[in-house]
Amino acid sequence: KVDGLIISNTTIARPAEVTELVHGGETGGLSGPPVMAASTELLREMYARTRGQIVLIGCGGVSSGQDAYDKIRAGASLVQLYTAFAYQGPGLLPRIKAELADCLAADGFASVADAVGADHDPRKKHAR
Question: Which of 31, 51, 53, 68 is deepest in the core (most CB within 10 A)?
Answer without folding.
Answer: 68
